[in-house]
Structures are given as C-alpha cells and as structure tokens.
Amino acid sequence: MNKTKRTWLICLTAVGSLLLASLLTAQEAGNPALTEDAPIGVRTNSAGAEQGAEAEDAGPNARAAVSTNEPATEQNEEYQASPRQIVLTGQNVEVKAGETVREVVVIGGSAKIHGKVLQDAVVIMGGLELDGEVGGDTVAVMGSIKMHPGAVVHKDAVTVMGNLTIPDGAKVEKDAVSVAGTLDAAPGAIIAGQRVNIGLPVHFPRLEGLNKWWKYCVFELRPLAPQVAWVWIVYGVFFLLSLFVAAVFPRPVQACVEALSRRPATTFLMGLLTKLLVPIVVVILAVTGIGLLIVPFVLVALFIGVLVGKIAIREWIGFQIGRHFGGGIQNALAAFLIGTFITTLLYMVPVLGLLTLMVLSVWGLGCAVTAVFGSMRRELPDKPASRQPANAPPVAVAGVVPMPPAGAPGVGAGFVPGGTSAAEPPLPTLTGAPAQSATAQLQTGTAAAPAAPPVYPPALSFPRAGFWERMGAAFLDVVIVSILSAFVGGLPLGLLVALAYFSGMWAWQGTTIGGIVLKLKVVRSDGSPLTFLVALVRGLAAALSVVVFFLGFLWIAWDRDKQGWHDKIAGTEVVRLPRSAPLVCI
What is the phi/psi pair of residue 449, to 5°? Predict the structure, then answer.
C-alpha cells in the first residue's frame, strides 16, 4: 500500500512540475530584490556572504560554517552563465552538446537534449530523447522518453501513457516510473531508486499520430493537416457516410437545401439557438432521472441533423459554383462532390479551417431544424372535410322535400317535385282512413320522417397530426414531467407522475401542455368522449411502446392512419386544430 501511494505521489509530482516551474519563474520576475537572471541559489549565497562578512570578527569556527556555501557558488556560476529557459508550444526543441539551459518545457512537440539542463525537462504530448544530463526530473506525458548510453537524470524519470527506455550506461539517480506504458531497462542501466511499471488493461498504441494531431491540427486550429494520416482516415469514413445519405435519402437533403436557399440568415440563427438550448435541456433531463430515456434519442437526432445539414450545405455550395461556372449543375451528387472538395481545402487552412467547421456545424443543424418545422407547417390533411359516410341519407330540412336518389322508383319524366307522379301507387292506409299519396302523407305529417344521419364531433373533421408534430409535443411534455419527477423522488415515482400527468390531461382537456403549444388534440375514433379510463389505458399502452424501444411511437411515421400502438389499443386519434384552446380561461 505504501509503495502504491509513493508511486502515485511521484506521478503527480512529475506532472505538476510544469506548474511549479511557472510559479518559480513568476516569483523571480516579481521580486525587485533579485535580478532578472538570478536563481534561487544566488539568494542563499548572497545571504551567506553577508554572514561571512560578519563572521570575520567571530573567529575561525564561524568561517568554517560559512564555507559550506561553496558548492552553491559553483551552481550560481552555472545559473549566471546559462540564463536561457525554454518554454515552447507546438514546436520542437534541441539542446545542443555543450549548451546549458535552466529548464525545458515543451507542449505539443518533441525535445532532444544533448547538453545539460539544470532543472526539469518536461514534454507533454511529445517525445523526449536524452543523451545529455538533466539536473531535475525528466517527465513525458502522452509521450515516451528514450535515453542513450551516458545520459544522466539526477532525479526521477517518469512517463505517463508512454514508454521509458533506459539502455546500458544510462543513469537515473532516483525512481524510474512508467504509467500506462512500458519500462524497458537494460541490465547495465543504473537506477538508484525503484523501478515502477503501472500497466492498464487497455493497450495504448503508439502516440506519434496523436502528437502530430496535437501539433499540426490543434495548435494550428484546423481539422485537417497533411502530416496527420489517421485524421484523413476518419474524415474519409464520414465522407462515405455522407455520400451514402446523399444518394439514398435525397428528399431530406433537398428540403434542407431549399430552407437554406430561402432563408440563409434564419437557418443560421436557428442552429445557434438549438446549440444553446440543447445542452440545457439535456442537463434537465439527466438530473431528473426519467429523462435519461430521452437523452440518447436527442443526441442521435442532433447527430443526424448536423450530418444531413452539412450535406445540404455542400450541395448548396456546389450548386452556387456551378451556377457561376458552366451554367449550373443539375445532379445533386455532383454538387455534393464539388462542395466537399471546397470545404476540404478550407479545413486545411490554419484558423480558417476551425472557423469553417464551426460555422458549417451550426448552419447545418439550423437547416435541418428549419426544414423539419417547415415540413410540419406544409403538411396537408389526408382526410376528407367531413366524416359523414357517402351512403348516408340526406338530411331532411323543414319545408323542403328531399330529392329521392337516382334510380329510385318514381324518378323519371313523370316525377314532379312537391307533387305526386302519375304512376305513384297509393300508400297503405290505416283502418278507416282514406288512402293518401306519399307526397300528401309527407305534407300532412302522417308519414314517418327519414332517419337522421349519424352525428360526428367537429374535431374529427380536422386533419390528423403527423409524426414530427407529435414527437415535438411529447418532447415538451417529457421535459415538464422530468421537472415534476425531480420533486417527488426521481425515477421510481417519476413513472407514476408521468402516467398521472398524461392520463389526467387527456381526460380533462383532451390534450397536454405540449399538445396545446402545437395545437394537437386526442379524440376517440368513434366520436365518443375521452373518459379517464380510456386515457389511463392509452397511457399504459404508451408505456408499452416505450419498453419495446419506442417502436410503438415510430409506428406513427408509416401508419396510414398515423396511429401509434397506444392509439390503436385505446381507439384514439390525434388531430391538428386550427387554433389552440387555452388551458385556463380568465
């Protein structure tokens, strides 16, 4: 246990050496009593010189005590002769043979030390090659340390996610530590302290590619760089995926292109607003417990939206270029390839490449969101204006004799509206009553009136709601239920809260808060009222649709009647109203 604690303490100390070195440098620069190049040893030696001046009158014993400062004087001479301190980012460093520097700190680059470093040598995301001398610790984070024969490290040699190689004739005066890497020490290597190799179950490959990405992509602010091979492999995979989506699903891509062409500024602002709101909504869903079921679908929807939107932007760029050169491009795939070529060139430009990636991501998401809302508004009703059956009898109006249907007896040349036909047979009469014609009986009221047609509620005459409209309302309701569930104890009671919310709102108002916002209403298919029992059955059936990986809800997208499983079980439909009914009337 003590050995493990000591090992991790060494690792933390080595990684934190960069911060300590920066603090010491800032302290030296801010102390007016010291010169710019004066190290800590100068202060101790100057103090010792003052004590020596006072000890001249104190006798030989005091002078003997002051003589212990002589090694510090030699170190001060080295400090004064080597004021150079190397701290670089994204560059390679080489300390030549015979050269002495204070310390070396490199981030995103490599270091070769052939001379002498008085303090620490730290490399982050890069390799360190040593055949000289380091007076302090030698540390490589996400990189390897390779020592040559004759190299000397006066303190610890530590690698994190890298390999430590110590050949014959190399010397480490304290511990040699390798975390998440390998420790390769030859039999003739001199290691005065412990040899510690902390391996992890995950094998880390060679980190040269990651170091190149950090140097040529991250520090130069561009997604692509010719020097980094694995980035081009990842980019090629996404290109093939985008090409597949553009070829197999052209309609959603074309909808995004049209939204971008009609309202370019609106699409960008919509994407920016979505980027700002989605993290807030995801956090709310995550902390409430029950909303965790929705978070993966939200993230997948965002990924698909960004992917389709960026494909649309590339096609739009290709169409615009073809319009200026060559009279236009008619093939969407050709426009996509041209746009991809242009964006790839932009990705390789420092600074501009990162800006291009950020703008295209935001703009692509905005195009997808705008296209979805536009399709929801343009969706046409697929139901007739009335639910009255075609063979229903005509409605009788007071004072008007209805026309008999075509082909009925008595319809012909001799038929006279409002009177009797020549061939009209007399109706059977009651006992003792004179015979009357059918027209006379209708006029006198003695004949039975025709049956009234079935009455349908007005809501059934409205068009059915589409898949995206219903999912938008459900998303708003899930956010509300998640917030309510957070106050009652999280996921276990949250399911009961969700069931009570949906069942109660359906039975009370025929809709939910999300449905009120998007103008949706739940009605029975047979026109009967939506009771609480029916609403409860519908809520339980909706829970079943959730359990089977939301297949019951996805059924709405391809069902002819736009019903989910819970709609078919409860005998309900969701219609789109022309206006929203207020939840509270004041």
Answer: -70, 150
What the block records as the tokens of 242 is 């985008």
Helices (H) and strands (E) in the chain, counts: 19, 21
Going by C-beta distance under 8 Å and a sequence separation of 6 or more, which residues neighbour residue 145? 127, 128, 130, 138, 157, 159, 162, 163, 164, 165
Mention every residue, 6+ apart, whose C-beta is less than 8 A from residue 94: 111, 112, 113, 114
71 CB-contact burial (10 Å; exposed 0-12 / middle 13-18 / buried 19+): exposed
Neighbour tally for 476: CB within 10 Å:
16
Residue 583, φ and ψ in degrees, nearest 5: -70, -35
Confidence of residue 354 (pLDDT cuts 50, 70, 90): very high
Confidence class for position 33, pLDDT limits 50, 70, 90: very low
Residue with tokens 């007739």: 384
- Measured distance CA(528)–CA(373) in Å, rounded: 32
Q: How far is CA 574 from the centre of its chain?
A: 31
SS3 category, 170: coil
Pairing mode, strands 190-191 and 183-185: unpaired
Give residue 278's pLDDT: 84
Q: Which helix (H) or strand (E) holds 533?
A: helix 532-547
Q: Count how many Cα atoms sit within 13 Å of the Cα of residue 420 in the half-sphere of its side chain.
A: 14
> DSSP string spanning 476-493?
HHHHHHHHHHHTTTSHHH
Query: Cβ distance 72 to 79 under 8 Å?
Result: no
Sheet holding 86-89, edge to edge: 86-89, 104-107, 121-124, 138-141, 157-160, 176-179, 195-198
pLDDT digits 0-9 by tens, 415-463: 444 444 444 444 444 444 444 444 444 445 554 455 555 555 566 778 8
**What does the alpha-carbon distance between residue 235 and residue 341 come to, in Å, rounded to a whole number?**
12
Q: Could you give the CA distance from residue 156 to residue 117 in angstroms, rounded to a whole number?
A: 14
Whether 427 and 436 have beta carbons less than 8 Å apart is answered as: yes
Query: How many Cβ atoms from other residues are within 10 Å of residue 89's Cβ?
Result: 12
Of the listed ranges 128-142, 286-300, 347-361, 420-434, the one predicted with least confidence? 420-434
Is the distance from CB of 34 to CB of 28 less than 8 angstroms? yes
Tokens of 28: 């030296």
Q: Return d(Cα 378, Cα 161) in angstroms, integer.
A: 55
Give 51's Cβ-side CA count (13 Å radius).
15
Distance CA 532, CA 573 (A): 16
Q: In 3D, which of 392, 524, 394 has the Cα closest to residue 457?
A: 524
E-strand ranges in 9-142 read 86-89, 93-95, 100-101, 104-107, 111-113, 116-117, 121-124, 128-130, 133-134, 138-141
In the numeric block, the tokens 């919310």 are attached to: 501
> Model pTM?
0.50
Q: 337, 332, 334, 358: which is closest to 347 by C-alpha? A: 358
Of 174, 131, 127, 173, the residue nearest 149 (C-alpha)? 131
DSSP 72-89: HHHHHHHHHH----EEEE
Report whether 216 contacts 228 (CB < 8 A): yes
